[in-house]
Design goal:
The chain is an alpha/beta fold and 426 residues long. It is built from 13 helices and 16 strands.
Length: 426
């Protein structure tokens, strides 16, 4: 592990000694943003207890036993949700061998520092969509849930279901069959193997499955246009997920692999960089969500070029960045369902909110962008009754920002207050 990563991981350790407990809070909001209606309400207070929102009311005396949180100078809105993160992994760099140089134990500790940065940035829930060190995300999720380390609520995939040498493999470091077993938990060549790998992942605690339908921008020796998992393999995985009361999401850049994933029953598509008109129509008609990371192409180009990332990856990024944004704009106009996913881990964790401005630039209203990271993201995960809005009975996930995000969505890039499940972290 790099010294800087060790230092970051150590920054989370003080929380290990005293897990936070939810208190009853009485939160005074300057403006309260109702993400469903788009209304901003003044003079409202939120009462929480045992990690849940009890009621929203005109501010009055602080109820007995509650602690007052004075956010009267801020706009208050639900905790944010990022549907595409990689907390339990090393951050992308020029060293393509970094994941194998980092032990599973060190990876989990690095993940703890990533989780803390993400929570402080206002993201109280994430869907972590894969790690090279399989199941480290399960361990991190469980540590956060137990209160051992601070971080967002996590839903995890455990690893990548991918073809040998595909976009979910650590290619170009050594012969793939010599990689450690925990880095190949989902590698499969037939529908039968895919079904078995999917069952293994659910048996070991994952929440959903991540399918690699096409090559990847940052995976060496893969073609973003080329289909990888077959439609039958993906259908087998989807069937397993449904049997476990869950779903599968598919990484897909190229149009043909993406459409195969939709036909196979994928619930959502990650990236969708080169989706064609037929694919957009299929997604809209079947209610398939698109999770398009329209920010990080700039980061890859600027930082990757400066740091000497592999030229193959940089060129694939150049080939897909503008194309993805143009297709995002078309998807917005067509009314395709879009969830907020940043691909944090390609860039430093904690910068997740930088994508909001890109979504607005490419066709969304500020409210649409905010909804994609709150109520819509919760709906994608089937958790809309648990979180995603500030409503009685839902989890007390609440953030505060200076300014009005409906006028300048970039204010979400600098969060002033964070409450997750009734515990104040900022």
């Amino acid at each position: 592990m790099k010294p800087t990563a060790l230092a970051l991981a150590a920054s989370a350790l003080p929380f290990l000694a005293s897990p936070a407990a939810a208190q009853s809070l009485y939160v005074t909001a300057g403006k309260l943003l109702d993400v469903e209606s788009g209304q901003e309400l003044s003079g409202q207070c939120i009462l929480t207890d045992h990690g849940k929102i009890v009621r929203i009311e005109t501010c009055g005396a602080v109820p007995a036993g509650a602690e007052r949180v004075d956010w009267s100078a801020y706009t208050v809105l639900p905790g944010l949700i990022d549907l595409h993160t990689h907390l339990a992994d090393v951050t992308e760099s020029a060293d393509t061998a970094a994941p194998i140089k980092t032990s599973p134990q060190a990876t989990a500790l690095i993940g703890a520092s990533h989780a803390w940065a993400t929570l402080r940035a206002g993201f109280t829930t994430v869907r972590d969509v894969g790690t090279y060190r399989g199941l480290t995300d399960v361990a991190l999720r469980d540590a956060i849930a137990a209160g051992w380390v601070p971080g967002p609520r996590m839903f995890v995939a455990g690893g990548y279901i991918t073809t040998p040498g595909g976009g979910g493999e650590l290619n170009g470091v050594m012969p793939n069959d010599q990689l450690p077993p925990d880095m190949r938990l989902g590698v499969s060549s037939t529908p039968q193997e895919t079904r078995a790998k999917a069952e293994y992942l659910f048996d070991h605690g994952v929440d959903f499955l991540k399918l690699i339908a096409t090559g990847a921008v940052l995976a060496l020796n893969t073609d973003v246009n080329a289909p990888e998992l077959t439609e039958d393999q993906m259908r087998a995985a989807v069937d397993v997920a449904k049997a476990h009361g869950s779903y599968a999401t598919a990484h897909a850049h190229g149009a043909e692999g993406l459409k195969a994933a939709i036909r196979a029953g994928a619930h959502s598509i990650e990236h969708a960089s080169l989706i064609d008109d037929e694919g957009l129509q299929m997604a809209r008609d079947k209610g398939v969500w698109l999770v398009m990371d329209v920010f990080n192409g700039d980061y890859i180009d600027e930082t990757g070029t400066a740091e000497g990332w592999p030229e193959e990856a940089l060129q694939k990024n150049r080939d897909t960045t503008l194309a993805q944004r143009e297709r995002f704009a078309k998807a917005v106009k067509m009314g395709v369902k879009i969830g907020y996913g940043s691909d944090a881990g390609v860039y430093p964790h904690g910068l997740n909110a930088r994508q909001f401005a890109y979504m607005v630039q490419w066709g969304m209203s500020p409210l649409q962008a905010i909804r994609s990271a709150t109520v819509d993201a919760a709906t994608l995960m089937g958790k809309q009754d648990e979180f995603g809005t500030i409503s009685p009975g839902k989890s007390a996930d609440i953030i505060a920002v200076e300014g009005d995000p409906l006028k300048d969505v970039r204010v979400l890039e600098s969060v002033s207050g964070v409450i997750k499940q009734g515990v104040r972290y900022r």
